[in-house]
Structures are given as C-alpha cells and as structure tokens.
Write a structure and sequence with these properties.
Largest sheet: 10 strands, mixed
Shape: globular
CATH topology of one domain: Rossmann fold
Number of helices: 17
Strand content: 15-25%
Strand order of the largest sheet: 12-11-13-14-21-20-19-16-17-22
Radius of gyration: 26 Å
CATH superfamily of one domain: Class I glutamine amidotransferase (GATase) domain
CATH class of one domain: Alpha Beta
CATH architecture of one domain: 3-Layer(aba) Sandwich
Structural class: alpha/beta
Length: 674
C-alpha cells in the first residue's frame, strides 16, 4: 500500500497546476526560477495534455513532458503527475462519437469543452487505460514523482449519461445490486403508476418523462452514475499501483461545492491514497470564509481525520461566476492557512501562470497577467515563506469539538421532484447549522449517518430526509450512550429506496426523538411563524412547520401562530444517558444559536469566551507537537486568550496569556506547554 503523503516532500506542499504546453519553452526557465523564488515545492502537470501526449491513436510523444519534468526535477520541484483522461483528444471523439455523453433529454454533447464523457463507453475505458499505462511505464519511477493525479474533478460538469451504452451498463449494475427484476420492482415500488417490469431488459435510464419519473429509479441512477465514474478511477489507480508502486494516487474532490453534489465522497474517500480537494469562494453575498471552513472540515472528515491536501484554490478572482471579485490584500494567505488549520498539508492553486487564451484566461493565477511587479505575486512569495516556516505541522491532525451528519445520497433523494415544499433546501440547512456552530467557535467533523459518533459530545443532523434503519439505530445508540443530538425537520422520512418508513413520521428517528409527526405543514412564500418558550422569549421560523405529537419528549418551544399553533415546535427527549433535540421549523443562524446553546449545555460544551465573531481558533496535534491556528477575518486586531505559552511560527515571537492577531492575518502558535 503506498504512503498517503506526497513522496519526497519534507514540508507542506505549495504550488499549482503547471501547464508548460501553453507557453514557449524559453518561458519554462523563467517559470522554474520564479517557482524557486516563491518557495514552490510541488506542481501538478499534464491534466489536460492527452492530445499532445497521444496526437494520434497509439502514437505517443513524451518529449515535451520529459523536458518539463526534467527541468522541474533539476530545480528541486516535486511533480504531481496527472493522467489526462478528463479531456480525450478530438481524434478520439471523431472515431468514437458515442463516447460523448447524452443528456436526459436525448441531446448528445459536442467536443470543445471538457468532461463531456460517457463513463460507460468501452472505447473511452480502453483509451484511458492505455494512456495511463504508457504514463506509468515511462514516469512511474521518475525521481521527481511525488503523487499521481487521476483525471480531474470527477462529476464536473457531467456525471450522468443517458445513452444506450449507459442503459446496458445500468441493467448490469441493477443485476449486481439486486439480483432479479422482482427485487428491482420491490425496491422501486413499480406497482405505482403501472411501472412494473417483467425483465431487466425492459429497464431504461430515467430519461425525460412527461411528468415525474419514478424517484427510486432516479435515485438508483445517481448511485449508478457515481459508481461508474468510480470504476474508471479505480481502473486507472490499479494500473498506477501496479506499475508505480509506493507512489500515492489521488483525484481532486470538490466536497462542499453544490456544483459537485452528484458524487458520494464517503465512497470515494475509501478509494484514494490521499484525499485532495479543490475549493473556490462562492461570492453569493454570504460569509465566504464560513463555507471555506466547512469545505476543509468536510474534506478532513472524508479523509477519516487524516491530513489531506488542498490541490486547487485561487490566488484572487475566478472566471466562472456571475461576478468575480478580486481577493482583498492578505485574503489569499488567510484562505490558504485556514485550510491548513483544518487539516490540509499544503496549499496548491489553479494555476501557476495565468493563461492568455481559453475559457479560464481571466481566472487568477500565481503569476498573474500583471507579472511579478504586482500585489498578487508579492503575496504569493510571502505565502511561500510562511508555509515554509510551518513544515513541522505536516502530518498532525485537527482536533474537532462536535460533529455534523452529512450524506450525499440523502441529498440526491431530497432534491427530486414533488416534495412538500420547494423552499426547503437540505443544503441550506447544512450551511445554516454549520454557520451557527462556527459562530460558537466549534471545530466540526462531518460523519456518515451510520458512522461512529462516540467521540463527539454534540452531533447535529441538519437535514437527513433519507435515513436508513441502520442510521436510526446508530443515532439512538449514540444518545443512549450519553450523546447530545440535534435534529432538524424533514429528517428520518424515507429508507434507502426513497420509500416512506412504515408508520408515522419521522420514521427511523421516532424512538430517538420521542415523538411523531402527524402531518407536515409547509408555510407559504414569505410566511413566518413565531415560536415561544415558557419564559416568554420568542424565535421566528419560516418555510416549514409540523404537527408534532410528543411520546416522551418535552416541549421546550411552542408554535404561537400558524396551523400548528399551540403545538410543540422544539422538543427535548431524554433517552438513556443522553438527550435528543428536535427542531420542526426553519430557524435562521441567530435563532439556531439559541437552540444550540441549550444543547451545548446538555453536552457540557463550555462556551468559548473572549473570542470575537469571525476569529477562528483551531488546533492541530501530532508527534511534532501541538499547534494553535488563529485566523482573523475581521478588520481589527484580535486578542486570543491562551491557557499555555509558545512560539508563533510565522513571526518567531513568544506569546503567553494571549495571542495578538492583526486584522486579516493568521498566527500559528507552537504550544510549549499544556
């Protein structure tokens, strides 16, 4: 089994996607000189180079790549070498147009972008395996090789294809998964609307239909599409393991971006040697650093708590959103070090040198169009020096305070048609609960609903529409053994086949919550509802209410309006040694904090006194010591209280009693005592 860390790196990874094929070779020498000036330790190479490496079928030309990797090696820069299978050449699609993916509506995409691949195509699979084997044989033992990088951002922009190859592949997948057509009929509930199948051969992909398609079929097709991409990844990975032993293999995830919610990263995390992630700030008016923290925490959790690697982010603005603002001075370093605080063993960018041509020519880079006499370049050099001083952090683990249950497959089911309210957004609930935990200065691990929760005093379930019986038992055992659970509305409703659990809602969570829900009562657009406590305090909900009937749970907050007026809105259930809270309406982050404050009291999680809003404090610990990261996202200096003293690694200053963090800056304290 290969090591999980990039081979040959002594400190943190720093660099970016390097595309020498876009530039004359005389520029390469300037590139490596500037890389050394910036403190670059590793670059990603070859991601989109298939057409250059195999200009015609079976004719491989590696001279350009030989020279580029050789130059990098001569200058002490490690290489994350990609298999270029995200972008097959034009000649391939001309010979195999059936390998271009087809939409639900039956439109076949054209060549000219990236990622429009039918992952069921036998021709694609054979060609991808061939180029991967050629690369592995040529570079598998190259002294510059640190990491193999398979494909690029699986699922972006296309995950599912609906062509005839996929139809046949889907039927084979169903046979492996269920065995017989009768089992498929049972799982999909095909007795409804007369959809019963007499043979697996009758089953097609869930293409466009005049009204709602069978939701269980849609859900299984999402699983099939994800599994099919993963089959292709593991095929390339196994070739690399065989021909390049000892070198870790990865592919870059996009864990917390809604643009990539078609991939079940819990399953993918088990297949890579090193978990890596791409993260870009989404400028939609929200606090972008909160989503950044969420992405980093989620990626670390997919890695099982082990160190991971930020393989792409941006030095400044991106190019693909409606509005693409530049990053403020100091924001690039702050973003990068916030990822490191939450478990990344480095900070990599897309890309090294800003492109002059192509779709992403306005996407920022380490070397911008403005050149080296620019703020971005000066910050790139400064960040490289800072990361160099943090080498001892490499390999340590981030310490979490609480956990959030997260399940991509539940989202797939939740996001299908004909749910009680289109205003309910499971991702919005996850974001809001995370933001409330973030504002309580709690570092969050994410957990699969059937995963081990015993390490966490507090577990939050923001929206778990699809909840298996096993997950229900797991959450009940967690509470019975002393945990504190907070569950949001419309959770526990259906099983793994999108079938409503037998009996009253919330199905698999009835026992742990000590209640039933007789009926959902979604609110109208813009409608709000007051909920009140015995002490007269009020909170405001919107989008959703329910008719809740306690069966052992106590009512803590009551609906003061709406159809559910007088009924329980927020409940608390003592079960075994622990407590389970239920929130049956949508609360904003501020009102959620009121509920979480009470739940944190049950969990004996003391408040983090003295920490300003938007100043995050995160710890990493390991064999080399304990490190406290303080990230100040505010415009004023912050003082972080300390219960120990130590040395600040970025400045060399000693700190005791408190750690001063300038506005917009990061400080990293090596703790000298506990």
């Amino acid at each position: 089994m290969p090591d999980t860390a990039p081979k040959g790196l002594k400190g943190l990874a720093y660099g970016g996607d390097y595309n020498p094929e876009q530039w004359p070779e005389e520029v390469w020498h300037e590139d490596v000189r500037l890389m050394r000036e910036a403190g670059v330790t590793m670059v990603s190479v070859g991601i989109f180079s298939w057409a250059l490496l195999e200009p015609e079928p079976g004719n491989y030309e590696f001279g350009l790549l030989d020279r580029a990797i050789g130059l990098l090696h001569e200058n002490g820069i490690r290489v994350d070498l990609a298999t270029p299978t995200v972008a097959p050449p034009a000649w391939f699609f001309r010979a195999h147009p059936e390998a271009l993916s087809v939409t639900r509506e039956g439109m076949r995409y054209a060549f000219g972008s990236r990622g429009a691949i039918c992952h069921s195509s036998p021709a694609y699979r054979a060609a991808a395996a061939a180029i991967t084997e050629q690369l592995a044989r040529r570079y598998g033992t190259h002294p510059a090789l640190a990491l193999w990088h398979v494909h690029n951002e699986y699922g972006v922009p296309v995950s599912a294809c609906y062509c005839e190859n996929c139809a046949a592949h889907f039927r084979r997948w169903l046979e492996r998964t269920y065995g017989t057509v009768d089992e498929v009929n049972e799982a999909w509930g095909t007795a409804f609307w007369g959809q019963r199948y007499a043979s697996l051969d009758e089953i097609e992909p869930p293409r466009a239909t005049p009204t709602v398609c069978n939701p269980a079929q849609r859900l299984d097709y999402a699983r099939f599409a994800d599994a099919t991409m993963r089959e292709n990844f593991t095929a390339e990975r196994d070739i690399l393991h065989r021909l390049s032993p000892g070198v870790p293999v990865t592919t870059n995830f996009m864990t917390a971006l809604s643009q990539c919610d078609t991939v079940d990263y819990w399953a993918w995390g088990r297949e890579v040697d090193l978990v890596t992630n791409d993260h870009y700030l989404i400028t939609d008016g929200r606090r972008t650093h909160v989503n950044l923290a969420m992405a980093a925490d989620l990626t670390r959790s997919v890695a099982g708590g082990a160190p991971w690697l930020l393989l792409e982010h941006s030095t400044s603005g991106v190019s693909w959103q409606p509005r693409n603002p530049a990053k403020a001075p100091g924001e690039m370093a702050r973003n990068s070090l916030a990822h490191v605080a939450r478990g990344s063993d480095g900070a990599m960018f897309f890309q090294w040198r800003q492109s002059r041509r192509g779709a992403e020519k306005f996407h920022s880079a380490m070397v911008p169009h403005a050149g080296t006499d620019s703020r971005v370049w000066r910050e790139v050099v400064g960040l490289g020096a800072g990361l160099g001083s943090l080498a001892a952090v490499r390999g340590t683990r981030t310490v979490a305070d609480a956990a959030m249950v997260w399940d991509w497959q539940s989202w797939w089911a939740q996001n299908l048609e004909w749910r009680p309210s289109e205003d309910h957004d499971a991702r919005e609930r996850a974001d809001s609960f995370y933001e409330a935990l973030y504002d309580r200065h709690l570092t969050v691990d994410f957990a699969h609903p059937e995963g081990d929760l015993s390490a966490y005093p507090l577990v939050v379930v923001p929206a778990l529409y699809l909840t298996t019986e096993a997950a229900g038992r797991n959450l009940r055992a967690y509470v019975e053994n002393g945990g504190t659970l907070v569950v949001s509305y419309f959770s526990g409703i259906v099983d793994e086949h999108d079938a409503v659990h037998d009996g009253p809602h919330p199905g698999a969570l009835r026992e742990v919550l000590g209640l039933t829900v007789e009926e959902f009562s979604p609110l109208g657009e813009g409608e709000r509802v007051r909920i009140t406590a015995a002490d007269g305090s009020e909170l405001t909900g919107d989008v959703w209410t329910e008719f809740v009937v306690p069966h052992g749970a106590e009512t803590v907050w009551t609906y003061a309006g709406g159809l559910a007026a007088g009924g329980p809105a927020v409940t608390r259930h003592r079960l075994g040694k622990g407590t389970a809270w239920y929130v049956s309406t949508r609360l904003g982050a501020g009102d959620l904090d009121t509920i979480l404050d009470a739940a944190a009291g049950d969990a004996r999680l003391a408040p983090r006194a003295g920490l300003p809003r938007d100043v995050e404090v995160v710890r990493r610990t390991g064999e080399t010591g304990s490190y406290l990261f303080a990230v100040n996202h505010t415009a004023t200096e912050a003082k972080v209280p300390l219960d120990a003293h130590g040395t600040e690694l970025l400045t060399g200053e000693l700190a005791a009693g408190h750690l001063g963090v300038p506005a917009g800056a990061v400080r990293v304290l090596r703790i000298d005592d506990a």
